[in-house]
């Protein structure tokens, strides 16, 4: 699966990023999302595979979706029997976020990217469109920090594992009212807080790379993005834990008023989740034998440049991570759209 799909999933996120980047700074987050969705779907339907979306676009945003349960790939088309050896074909589960950080694109801000994760059937946790409490940390702290501990305890552990004073640590937190107490507690330890408005997948993954000046991600974000982050962190050896948040009173968003705690618990039961308070680690959220993660920057970010257009084409930077050979590859690509583009630049 890795050899067959590795290059092609890079092209999937590249095409989604390029399409979405055309909306950068235009104030149209749904347009940016729609363009990414359509480009991602179109490219996936050209891949020789039988894929199924297990994590799609968030229904909360009332945005266009690659919906959960949608089948993609050449071998899901009506004439699949004529061109595919269905008996030998591995079925693929796919988690996608075609435009992670739609508001960032709309406002022309840093940190948006197109992302996906794939595994064999059953290899990715089918997270409901709930929220998730998350903890991400570098490989050196894996198995030492714990989401069930307080922020104060985890920062002390992180300080010891990384041999850094708390004042040298940077913790990323989503800038939301629900995190007021968490932010204050982190600051009390001496650690520094980097507040982000959107896009916690990039923040989680950045914990695994030195030089990013991000040492932990803490707090509540979207559950589907938690699974995608876990897929990358599993392959990188980083620490990731997630715990579903089903109580609207904890989330503290206007949309959560439409939910009820009891209704959310029933929905989880209907999905086979009998312990709503369970803490999941990266290996449980992305449990497949083969897990691949791919991302492409839409706007500039910590790990990747955004899409850069020039007369006759554009340039993208992508990241593909494999759990099989434990590699993280940064891919710099020039896409030529004109027969006679102007001179290409290396910078």
Description of the structure:
With 347 residues, this protein is of the alpha+beta class. It has 2 domains: 2-124 and 289-336, Fructose-1,6-Bisphosphatase, Chain A, domain 1 (2-Layer Sandwich), CATH 3.30.540.10; 131-285, D-Maltodextrin-Binding Protein, domain 2 (3-Layer(aba) Sandwich). 31% of the residues lie in helices and 26% in strands. The protein has helices at 2-21, 29-44, 80-83, 102-107, 151-162, 180-188, 200-206, 223-236, 248-251, 261-270, 282-285; strands at 50-55, 71-72, 91-100, 113-120, 131-137, 170-174, 192-196, 216-222, 239-245, 279-281, 291-297, 308-310, 313-322, 327-336. It starts with a helix and ends in an 11-residue tail after the last strand. Mean pLDDT is 90; it is low at 58-63.
What key phrases describe this protein's structure?
11 helices; six-stranded mixed β-sheet; 347 residues; 2 domains; D-Maltodextrin-Binding Protein, domain 2; Fructose-1,6-Bisphosphatase, Chain A, domain 1; eight-stranded mixed β-sheet
Concise overview:
The protein has 347 residues and is an alpha+beta fold.
Write the layout of secondary structure elements.
Elements: H1 2-21, H2 29-44, E1 50-55, E2 71-72, H3 80-83, E3 91-100, H4 102-107, E4 113-120, E5 131-137, H5 151-162, E6 170-174, H6 180-188, E7 192-196, H7 200-206, E8 216-222, H8 223-236, E9 239-245, H9 248-251, H10 261-270, E10 279-281, H11 282-285, E11 291-297, E12 308-310, E13 313-322, E14 327-336
Parallel strand pairs: 1-3, 6-7, 6-8
Antiparallel strand pairs: 1-2, 3-4, 4-11, 5-8, 5-9, 9-10, 11-13, 12-13, 13-14
Helix pairs in contact: 1-2, 7-8
